[in-house]
Design a protein that fits this description.
- With 166 residues, this protein is an alpha/beta fold.
- It is built from three helices and eight strands; from the N terminus they run αββαββαββββ.
- The longest helix is centred in the middle third of the chain and has 26 residues.
- The protein is globular, with a radius of gyration of 16 Å.
Length: 166
């Protein structure tokens, strides 16, 4: 029963603390949260561009969306280990809507509690890499890691939370 309370605290914390980003006012959309043993898998959709960025060039707007996605991934990692004390490992995946109605994986990684969050690095991308996140940046914009994510069968509207005791 405690695990369910921990998960509900995490989801509540996610909604409260990450309701707005620094570069986008859109909320995060959780796709999947699964907890088993000492591992959590968490998938979410990256925030869309802020409506106020509509006058910016596509490259600047894309950089804002990319930096917001990286900052969110770092923040979710910190929230995960702070609110789920039994978790030692997290598998994080960030998706965005694709051009053909599918979704694209843009950030993925396995993070561990013992990896220290190094705040003294100014570069958000460097901090994310040091924490175990993998991604491709092209001119400051996140590129899709895989051409298509068909094996996952995730839809943007789906949300599921699962706690499994083994």
């Amino acid at each position: 029963m405690r695990r369910l309370w921990d998960i509900s605290n995490f989801v509540r914390g996610l909604r409260i603390q990450l309701r707005f980003g620094e570069l986008s006012r859109a909320p995060l959309r959780l796709l999947r949260l699964e907890m088993y043993n000492d591992t959590v898998e968490c998938d979410w959709m990256a925030r869309p561009p802020d409506p106020w960025d509509s006058d910016l060039s596509p490259s600047v707007s894309g950089r804002h969306v990319s930096m917001q996605a990286l900052e969110d991934a770092i923040a979710i990692r910190e929230l995960l280990f702070r609110l789920l004390p039994d978790v030692e490992t997290g598998v994080l995946r960030v998706f965005r809507p694709g051009s053909e109605g599918d979704i694209e994986l843009i950030i993925s990684g396995t993070v561990a509690r013992e990896q220290l969050a190094t705040r003294h690095f100014h570069s958000v991308a460097m901090r994310a890499k040091l924490l175990g996140l993998q991604f491709w940046l092209e001119d400051g914009n996140l590129a899709a890691m895989l051409p298509q994510i068909q094996a996952m069968d995730l839809r943007a509207e789906e949300v599921s939370a699962v706690a499994v005791e083994k």
